Automatic annotation (TrEMBL):
It is an enzyme of class 2 (transferase). Gene3D superfamilies: Nucleoside phosphorylase/phosphoribosyltransferase catalytic domain, Pyrimidine nucleoside phosphorylase-like, C-terminal domain, Transferase, Pyrimidine Nucleoside Phosphorylase, Chain C. Keywords: Glycosyltransferase, Transferase. One of its GO terms (cellular component) is cytosol. Pfam families: Glycos_trans_3N, Glycos_transf_3, PYNP_C. This is Pyrimidine-nucleoside phosphorylase. It catalyses: uridine + phosphate = alpha-D-ribose 1-phosphate + uracil; thymidine + phosphate = 2-deoxy-alpha-D-ribose 1-phosphate + thymine; 2'-deoxyuridine + phosphate = 2-deoxy-alpha-D-ribose 1-phosphate + uracil. Belongs to the thymidine/pyrimidine-nucleoside phosphorylase family. It comes from Peptoniphilus asaccharolyticus DSM 20463. GO terms for biological process: pyrimidine nucleobase metabolic process; pyrimidine nucleoside metabolic process. One of its GO terms (molecular function) is thymidine phosphorylase activity. Residues 344-417 form the Pyrimidine nucleoside phosphorylase C-terminal domain. Homodimer.
Amino acid sequence: MNTYEIIEKKKEGQKLSAEEIKYIVDGYTNGNIPDYQVSALLMAICLKGMDVDETFNLTNSMIESGNTIDLSKIEGKKVDKHSTGGVGDTTTLVLGPLVASCGIPFAKMSGRGLGHTGGTLDKLESIPGLSIDLDIDKFIENTNKIKIAICGQTTDVTPADKKLYALRDTTATVNDVSLISSSIMSKKIAVGADCLVLDVKVGSGAFMKTVEDAVELSEMMVNLGEKAGKNTQAVITNMNQPLGRAVGNSLEVIEAINTLRGEGPEDLYELSMELAEKLLLVSGHSKTEGEARAILEEKIASGEAFNKLKELVQLQGGDVSYIEDVSKFELSPKFELVSEVDGYVKGIDALGIGEASKNLGAGRETKESELDLGAGILLNKKIGDKVSKGELLATLYTKKENAEEIKAEVLKAFEFSNQEVGADKLILKVIKHEQ
Ligand code: URA
Ligand code: CA
């Protein structure tokens, strides 16, 4: 096989074979094919596209480039959730305990935050004592015991994706449906869950700017999941503002705890319920959405979902007294941002808030950056809220000296209107395989 001819073929818009795709992925991963040839091929893929078969073959080749995780020793149908990168998105910490309290195994390998999006592992580490370093045997044992475990990734899955993603990032070839979906789905399939729910964000700061693009991406990912034998659904959700009110590690843990107690912000509750409902459906636990919803509401009302979080924290070595009394979380010094105008909140740029939160110390600039787990932003106003001049818009928590500068950044993320603003829909579309 010949790399030049493969590039030429895709340039002409022809379909690549499984062997050709594997040749490129293997050759690139082991260093035999140079960046410039793969860059040219990636650009040809962006311009000419790949069909479902090609995308599936690319996904498989990337899975085969590294280790996979065998979770077959976990009893029952294991579920997993993936979000395409929200701001203030604490759904994992809500829906994990929620579905586990229904008896569904939630064995989650999570990541750290980078740039404007947070990571579940960092959030969990704001609970004193809690360890996310579980080896695979412990991870499986814990999941069998209490139906939930959350840990960091220990083995090297999909090294091809890491290398390709870095190259895409510098060659303007990130935004392609086949490349994004194979990148996401290879990682999800490699870590071993039986069924999967995807939360595909639309809006500022999201990969997909329009619902049409999000539908295309979701359909491709659902197709890939189903072809790999995993029941998959996708939910397309609005990212016209951060999710919930809290953005930052300790702040989001507190928000997740409140939500599991039935006292959280409405949008975070609604999205967690929607995704949990889909997990009950894809795992075969419930037959209808109504049935699933009733079960989940009961788990919140009875306190079982909240208790499941306590069990998780306990089993992973965390101090449960923080879960019982959230005032124990130590937050950084606070700064209040007040409105300079009268009006209604029309939008809150999620990307802008994510960046500001990172600058306050809640996120990482590079992989090596130190985090301030007590830093972040609480939004006192959200879309549709009326505000008066001098009224509190947001509270910033930080140890940084340039808090005043960052206040201006947060203010810039708010968009106001003179007229009343209706609340936007959060759940925009559900994509299932039958469709
Ligand atoms: N997230 C990923 O993991 N890969 C992509 O290509 C885009 C988003
Ligand atoms: Ca939040």
